[in-house]
Amino acid sequence: MGDVGMTGRLVSPAGAAFGLVPVPDPWSRPTGPEGRLLVDIEMLSPDRLVCYLSRRIPTAGLTRLAEAYLRAAADQHPEVTVPAVEIPEGGITVAFVASTDLDVTVECSVVEALDAHVPEHDGLAFEVQRASLISASHQLTSWVEALHAPVDEEA
After folding, report:
1. Is the per-residue pLDDT at 48 higher than 80?
2. Which distant-in-sequence residues (6+ apart) come within 8 Å of 99 by Cβ?
3. Please, what is the end-to-end C-alpha distance for the chain in angstroms?
4. What percentage of the chain carries pLDDT values higher than 90?
5. Using one digit for the tens of pLDDT, what is the confidence trace for 73-110?
6. How many whole angstroms separate alpha carbon 57 and alpha carbon 133?
7. Are 69 and 129 in contact (CB under 8 A)?
8. Which uninterrupted H or E stretch holds 68?
9. What angle in degrees, to the nearest 10, is found between the helix axes of 59-74 and 130-148?
10. For the residues of 118-155, what is the DSSP string, one character each?
């Protein structure tokens, strides 16, 4: 199931954050690239906190997001070179819309109700330091690697 303490959280010095938090799921094992897992999606700004609970997303989506975070941190103009990451199963879109030498503006969007006939989106755009993108990328990569690690059934 992985370490429930792991997150993939982008944090802004101005008090905003976007995070993916693993949820314990004793009924399924998210192994392999086609695996899915439960994730809470958190969006925080100085005046609100919103959580979208128990979204089942593919581990491949976490891998794509980790790769995009790392590339956005490294590229001089990620708003031009790094495409938005969409994880439709979880209703998540993350885009890189502006940058400076030290910061990248990230725009995060979440579909409020996945089963709605007309989906409504909740969004948050904020600047993060490039170092925060690197940290979140490593967190997500470690999370996916832990999920794919062999389980010792005798322990």
Report:
1. yes
2. 72, 76, 77, 78, 79, 105
3. 15
4. 70
5. 999 999 999 999 999 999 999 999 999 999 999 999 99
6. 20
7. no
8. helix 59-74
9. 150
10. S--EEEEEEEEEHHHHHHHHHHHHHHHHHHHSPP-TT-
